[in-house]
Write a structure and sequence with these properties.
The structure is a single chain. The chain is 34% helix and 18% strand. By secondary structure, it is α/β, with parallel strands linked by helices. The strands form five sheets. A seven-stranded parallel β-sheet has the order 1-7-6-5-4-2-3, with helices on both faces. Strands 16-17-18-20-19 form a five-stranded mixed beta barrel. Helix 14 (394-407) packs parallel to helix 15 (434-449).
Length: 576
């Protein structure tokens, strides 16, 4: 595996980037192993030479099996197809945040471009391989990954686990199965190779960090009317409870021009919403000599002037957004930018924020919220709260209740503290008793659910961007400029368009209304086809660039002689 420190065996063996004994007696490393490494192409060649071919054996049938118990011709063909690169069916299951969803869409796009049929939940039982794109934020999200892996393995599927869990915790017990392949967050462009190897019965582990995947790689959107564009990966913080930092690492930003090009391309295809995704929007660009203000100005200039496509900002932490509040407010006043911001507070207590190492005070959070609300009065402000963090007293909790009461957040994501293995917070004491933790989360939930934030909209006519079918499976759903969720009756030709809606009723989470007129129709099929073709060309270039990079790395590895071995030296492979 080019550029990786890998030990690769014959079909059925594990291709592991973790340190193992080298033939020279060292531990992991680079030089001593080169003589016996194999590339994925070489592995595939071996698999072909040792394959039993489209026969009874390929379908897992012993020669002594009675004819009556043998599979039918179609069953044998299905079994054989799973061993042919590009001929299999792959189920991609994603857990977690918008960034993870975008990564899952990219992997699905690459697999589809390689000829695989990518299926959803309804057809997962028919898939030959499962790609489980994992989330490590909380225990329940990792438990969901574990359940998916178990179900796939019990059903005899080839399994590739991608995302934050293998990158941040590659030695997790659920990943120890020799039949599971692992794919790191910066190795997405090689998902096709890994799936091919997994289908051939091998275990591949590509976890070494590399450059960010190109934004031009092909995608299969979960929602064809919503484009998720990562603007960066990683962050500059070191929160004591955070496991994501272990996976995503330090801040790495995409260039402004690459982000603008991707947004312009998505808008040309007629998406209703573009979401900017980041672990910390406010920190964008610090590593490459730019900032979020410059990016937002460039994006506002690139958006269609007819307002058919709306931009939504991602999550930002207070420390790095403080100096850009005026620019953020200016962007949200643009007619093509939603008045929405996700600004986590986590706690209303400075003592707890310090224990979390959040690098801001409650006063600084309130400065962010107050200044933005002054400039954008209808701002849809979302936040996060962690209840029962170690050491949280009743006074600390009441301080959090005060902040929630003051701002009456449009969205409040409440989490009970979950100690994540390997994080400093997992060692903090004293822990809050379980019954107390549940009481605190229940109180916050009841407080939040007691608000009626949308009653004032009844009788008003608002502009809505329709992007999806609602959770009830019948109504269409869209958002106002200040990101209020609006439900309307289904009608052909509305999804992907912008309409005016008269609000008839309001609930806790959304409003319901009737369409009065269509402001902007969906992009015509002909226009969309041209945009899709242009994007496909860009995707081909991105894939070719990724392949060339891999090929160059292979060539360097094959031609570079191993370094001289110093007696007693101990090689390491910490990045794998």
């Amino acid at each position: 595996l080019a550029g990786q420190e890998a030990q690769v065996g014959v079909p059925g063996a594990e291709l592991d980037l973790a340190a193992r004994e080298s033939p020279r007696g060292g531990r992991g490393g680079t030089g001593g192993e080169r003589a016996w490494m194999l590339d994925i192409e070489e592995l595939a060649s071996k698999a072909t030479r040792t394959s039993r071919g489209p026969s009874d054996k390929a379908a897992g049938v012993d020669a002594g099996t009675p004819a009556s118990a043998r599979p039918t011709l179609s069953q044998r063909a299905e079994a054989t197809a799973s061993n042919i690169p590009g001929a299999a069916t792959v189920y991609v299951r994603t857990f977690g945040c918008a960034h993870n969803v975008s990564d899952g869409e990219t992997m699905a796009g690459l697999l589809e471009a390689a000829g695989y049929r990518v299926v959803g939940d309804k057809e997962r039982g028919k898939a030959h391989a499962w790609v489980v794109n994992s989330c490590t934020v909380k225990g329940p999200s990792q438990d969901a990954m574990n359940n998916a892996i178990k179900a796939a393995r019990e059903d005899g599927k080839a399994v590739v686990v991608a995302g934050c869990v293998p990158q941040g915790d590659p030695h997790a017990k659920s990943l120890s199965d020799a039949g599971i392949s692992l794919l790191g967050v910066t190795q997405l462009s090689r998902v096709v190779e890994v799936v091919e190897a997994a289908l051939a019965g091998n275990s591949v582990r590509l976890l070494k960090r590399g450059p960010l995947p190109s934004l031009d790689l092909p995608k299969v959107r979960r929602n064809e009317h919503v484009e998720i564009v990562p603007i960066s990966a990683g962050c500059l913080g070191s929160c004591t409870y955070c496991k994501t930092k272990h996976a995503r690492g330090d801040l790495v930003s995409y260039p402004v021009e690459a982000i603008v090009a991707r947004v312009r391309s998505a808008a040309a295809e007629g998406v209703a919403e573009v979401w900017l995704s980041s672990e910390d929007t406010g920190a964008y660009g610090i590593d490459i000599g730019t900032d979020i203000s410059q990016l937002l100005r460039a994006l506002c200039e690139a958006l269609p002037t007819d307002g058919r496509t709306m931009l939504r900002l991602g999550m930002t932490n207070p420390p790095y957004i403080l100096e850009h509040l005026d620019a953020v407010a200016e962007a949200m006043r643009h007619p093509c930018v939603f008045e929405f911001l996700h600004l986590p507070v986590q706690s209303g207590s400075d003592d707890i924020l310090k224990a979390m190492n959040r690098e801001y005070t409650v006063a600084e959070f309130e400065e962010c919220a107050d200044r933005l609300l002054a400039k954008v009065p209808n701002l849809h402000l979302a936040t996060d709260v962690i209840a029962a963090f170690p050491g949280e007293t009743e006074a600390d909790f009441e301080a959090t209740v005060r902040v929630v009461t003051k701002y009456r957040f449009a969205e409040l994501h409440i989490s009970q503290f979950y100690p994540r293995p390997g994080t400093p917070a997992a060692r903090l004491r004293p822990r809050v008793e379980g019954t107390v933790a549940k009481r605190r989360t229940r109180r916050l939930t009841e407080l939040f659910e007691g608000y009626r934030p949308y009653d004032h909209l009844v009788g008003r006519t608002v502009r809505v961007w329709i992007s999806d079918t609602a959770a009830d499976g019948v109504s269409l759903v869209g958002h106002t400029k200040d990101y209020v969720q609006v439900l309307i009756a289904p009608e052909e030709g509305l999804v992907g368009s912008s309409v005016t809606v008269e609000v008839k009723s309001a609930g806790r989470w959304s409003v319901r209304g009737e369409v009065r007129r269509q402001v902007v129709a969906p992009v015509l099929a002909e226009e969309r086809a041209v945009a899709v073709e242009e994007r496909a060309v860009a995707a081909e270039r991105a894939v070719a660039t990724a392949e060339a990079t891999v090929a160059a790395a292979r060539m360097r590895r094959r031609t570079t002689p191993p370094p001289p071995q110093i007696e007693g030296a101990h090689e390491s492979n910490s990045e794998s």
